Amino acid sequence: MFDYNPIIEFDRGKFIRIDVGLEPTFPLFFGRDIEDHFIDTLDRATRHRPVDRFFLLTDAFIFDLYGEPFFDKIQQTFPATDIHLLPRGETCKTFDVLQDVCDRLVAKGVSKRSLLIAFGGGSVGNITGLAAGLIFRGIRFVEVPTTITHQTDGMLSNKQAVNGKYGKNNFGIYHAPVFAWTDTRYTETEPLRFKRSGIIEGIKNGLIDQDACLPFLEHAIRKKGDYSSQQLTDLCFKLIRSKLEILKKDPTERRYGIILEYGHTFAHAIEWLAKGALTHGEAVSIGMKIAAELSLKLGYIDGDAVALHYRLIDDVLALRPRLPEHLNPANIFGTMYVDNKKIGSDVRYVLLQRIGQCRKENGDFLVHVDEKIVRRVIEEFFQNYVA
What we know:
The protein is of the alpha/beta class. Helix content is 43%, strand content 15%. The protein has helices at residues 38-46, 60-77, 95-107, 122-134, 148-154, 192-208, 213-220, 229-247, 264-274, 280-297, 303-316, 329-335, 371-384; strands at residues 15-19, 27-31, 54-59, 81-86, 115-120, 140-145, 159-162, 171-174, 180-183, 342-343, 346-349, 352-354, 357-358, 367-368. Strand 5 (115-120), helix 4 (122-134) and strand 6 form a beta-alpha-beta unit. The longest helix has 19 residues, at 229-247. This is 3-dehydroquinate synthase.
């Protein structure tokens, strides 16, 4: 079990290498203010198979903040480097945008020897990873995540996806990057709302498996977001470790790793229906509360375990999003029926057995629940929800 308590000092400009342990795996380079080392790392990682063209994919917001000097550094060393700006946020995770990206890259001369660089949050990472996996049946890409959510959760996966007409992440593939470059300097300017949204997945990891992480999070989370550079780097590193400790038990992300979907069946429906009014983390915070209430209703956990969810999310993290008025139990329940954890016509759920352990039935962590019970829990949750 990883020890979360010691504060780990990360010197500015120094980085460490972490093997994420997935199948296939990739190295993650982590540190604070380490951008000056990126070019050397990129050169070493591609020396055995030289790259003919580089393509940097980002959005205009990130480009204005950090992208221009980053792009210039790449282009100075690798002149055959181009840039492609994507729409911001979930709006870029569509088939139309994906096709436009792929067609533009082909028009600009992308080849089997080219490499894409995803510089941004989860949406940029997903569309870049998916494009890389599809172009010529697979070319190389590198992840440079710039948000807490993507640095500590989304990037720690080989899953790449876009949204469909009926739900979130309905279409995708598994495609691993050459490496991931995680510089916490980019997260320092992230607005408080998005910092909180990124940390929620770490709380989830503690509730489902890494309960030893929870005391650390209670101490380390700063409600007002006033982190020093060192505090934020230590927190991000521990959030990464909390997910990697789970992935070590299932590098394929398909068996035990499914517990990482705790609360996400509800969350994906809520996020999809919110149409941008809620961040992914905000939707997950709501989804985890519903999953906890469902676990309580079924007698798997007690009221103290549910209360811990509310205390960590509402009080420690101070994440209390308002629900859009058009959200209701009926449309949430209906949208859940296109969830990727559905088996036949049966939606399955990741539920808790206790804090730090998920429910397992017949060797499966996806649990069948009578839909009448699920409906009742969602309805009761909405009746009692306070932002």
